[in-house]
Fold these 4 entries.
Entry 1:
Amino acid sequence: MTFLSSKYLILCRYNFGKHTYDENLQYITSLSELERKRVDKWISEMKTLAQQSNKQYEPFDEARFRPLIGIDTVRYFIQDMWVKVSDQKKMLIFNIAIFETRYRLLKE
């Protein structure tokens, strides 16, 4: 069995340089909803093709894979990574401050 994939990628050729600041801002603001609609359409098309293929293609497992697709998923992952890095940085600074304090106390 073959899984439908790269043949049906969703591409957007929006060019920020060809639009005004306000148009770009509007595009970015609506990107999450626009992407959701395009991905939903893509999934629907994949399901239709899988049904029409006489079991040549596996149907798309929406419950399993839909939550992994999209800019919001990436955005939340990046935000989570930043929080973890920020927490680690704070902990490192705190440990350095403790080390410096102990060093000064031992030196005196």
Entry 2:
Amino acid sequence: MGTVHYDGQEATNETLADRRPTHVLQEVDLQTDVIEAIQQAVAELDKRLVGVLRDEDMPSEKQALDTPRPSLVPLAEQLHSHNDRLHLANYRLRSILDRLEL
């Protein structure tokens, strides 16, 4: 088998296949951290703009995420959770934009 360069090192295709699951999980973990940072930034933005936001009752954020779905394999479950969290962050940002009185 041939070799490929990976992270500045030579690795066989078999070695890369062995590393792939670990790399995917590392990227999922990194994505989790980034999503958490986005959610914190949205919460901070909402808090700082409270004086210039209309006070409106917004539909429950949770309602949109409470749709039944089939069971997923673990990686797909993590990605689905990330998508839910990103949709929620987008919902909150859209809410801020809709209520902004500037």
Entry 3:
Amino acid sequence: MRVLIVLVAATVILTTAGIAWASQTITATTDVNGHARPATAEIDGPSNVRCTSAAGQAGTGQKPSCSIAAPGYSGIVEIGKVIATDGGGTVTLTSNGNPPLRCTAEITP
């Protein structure tokens, strides 16, 4: 019984302190006609955002990549690269390259 009370108390303290434990995955797409469908996620504080994949139509032109706008950062992120945010707010992911496109990013606290 005491262990349960301690675990519940620790959970309440950590939750009210605003500590996030889980990662988020977001995916943005652009259809064949070039209509972008950005993805967004809210973050509570400084986080890392990694472009995990970017795929598009084969051929000439821009290589597929992720474009990330987040607190303290705005720019293109190559597959596998990580950027750090400097606080809480909105992370917006868009895809770059020849449509149709799909890119995914993982956000970790």
Entry 4:
Amino acid sequence: MRYKDELKANLLAIYHLGDQDECSWKHLGHAFASMVTTGDWVNAMDYDNPFGGDFTDTEFEQLASLWANVEFICSEVDKDVLTEVAIELSQTDQRLMMLDRYLDEYEREYQNDNES
């Protein structure tokens, strides 16, 4: 995939803004699935308020900028290719271990919402 290294770099930068623990793995997986499915990381189901927590204003600006980079990549790459890359990255880098975990769940939820 043309943007794989750039995608990985942005996702790892997002990971390093967080606590760098199992919560970071989970949040990154949810936000990525939301981005791929809905086009917006803020729609992640594991957040009531993605802007809560202990982030400074500067960290939020960095987070938004990094997710904007991921959003651009997702808009340029077919969803099936993104899924394949997510599986590969989750198997080759522990920090991204949950990147592919929620993609099917979000896709089902998104389809159900659009059918209602």
